[in-house]
Amino acid sequence: MKKIAAVQLTLIILIAGVGGGMLLYTGVYDDIHDTIVSTLCLSCIKLDPVSRLDFVFETANGEDHSEFVLENLTKGPLFIEYRSDVCAACDIMAPIIKEIFHLSFEKEDTLYELVNYNGTDVHFYHINLDHASKIQKDSFSIYDKDNRKGVPMFVVITVKYNRGVIDPCYTAAYGTLGLDTEEERRNMVTDMIEDGIKLYEQNHEGYKYD
Amino acid sequence: MNLRFKRLISQVFFFFLTNLGFKLGDVFPGLKTGFCYPFFYCHACPAATSACPLRAIEIGVYRGNWNWRFILYPLIIIGFVGVVTGRAVCGWACPIGFLQRITGKVPQKLKKKYPSLKKLGQHRIEPYLRYIKYIVFIGLVVVTPILIGFMFTDVCPVGYLVGTIPISILNPGGFTPNEFFYIAMGVFILFLVLIFTVERGWCRYFCPIGAMLAPFNKISIYHVSVNKDECVHCNACLKVCPMGIDVPNMERDPECILCGKCVEACPKDVVSYERSL
User: Fold this and answer.
1) CB-based contact (8 Å) between A10 and chain B?
2) What confidence tier does A1 reach under pLDDT thresholds 50, 70, 90?
3) Which candidate from A1, A11, A30 shows the least CB-CB separation from B83?
4) pTM
5) How far is A201 from chain B (nearest CA, A)?
6) Could you give the C-alpha distances from B68 to A15, A41, B62, B274, in angstroms and in order?
7) Tell me, what's the pLDDT at A209?
8) Is the distance from CB of B174 to CB of A49 less than 8 angstroms?
9) Which of A77, A173, B65, B95 would bridge A200 by S-S if both were Cys, CB 3.0 to 4.6 A apart?
10) What percent of chain A has pLDDT over 70?
């Protein structure tokens, strides 16, 4: 009996110490909150979001566009790939994105490149939400158009005519895009980029960044 | 207030506590925390407040990434609950346990109607089937995520029940099935068949969280104890035990969920809750 009591006491002290230490001195609480609880786990629901490639002006959470987006829009449209470390759909989509943009990077990398896509400059961002800066993390909610809260999310941001002025607009696609084959997925991503480029070419002269 | 009613209140309370993440317009923004549940529930449920501990472990080990914080954190939470109460959370707090309490009436009636089902639960291989949950935990939550990236959550029937179904209803046309959808659907159907034919079938044979908590029954502060000297072996406790435990001969059984049915059923009051610290 005394032996069990000693084991119980030791374990409680050990667990309370390690648990308390983790909560106080590591960011595990926030990591679990941001990575698991607040993000829709597509693996857990066994579903892929259907992507509608319409360009909209209203940001998803009503906040302003990120500064880095507004500034870069003066030079070309943006393509942003959001992912996390553990994400099966991200792993499926990553080679397609790398192939389209002729880039090579690791999944943990947070990367920015100005890429020449068929003669047009496109700002390419690879944002791993587990390693990104706060501004980049915050931009996820701004462009989560269909409020899916899931990764991977692919965003194209460009400019478009909006009741007398040229404003930033964007579209977002999710997961494996609800498509079955690699070719279909590649085609959809390139369609998305090309639509963005087309809108940019038609409207960028009227875009002003203050 | 009898034990059965107290347990019902506890299960209803924890069901609501588990689902405080539901958004009610501007009235209630929904509570999302950074904790892991110490029982079986899926964070993909639109109303979930916390994370599934299995998912945290899977992320921690995924393809050999070794994120120790994600591995240790759920183990610490489950360890704490386990040391204090053993598997009591299965009987008193787990929403899936609550679901099986409701469906448990069906196997009880089926057993009366078809005595062969009763024999099924008493078959000599039945105790060995209980080891499946340890294989599921080690195999699908730890080994396959490391080796091939396949995770238990890819086919989890609870994720299907509280995640896939409500999300499909709330977002009609918003999602399409992924490559694991139909496998998970098959697993979910088997899950339903199991809980409607064997009382606490999921807890007994497959629950990976049950597998994590079970060893703690050996050292937990609270446990169910039998005074073997005074036991008359009337087997009243054995008949009511939802986990099919041989209660008169048990000694800190890893399967005991501390539901207290045996405590209430014992005519000699020799089965009781005990605190050992």
Assistant:
1) no
2) low
3) A11
4) 0.86
5) 31
6) 15, 20, 11, 35
7) 80
8) yes
9) A77
10) 100
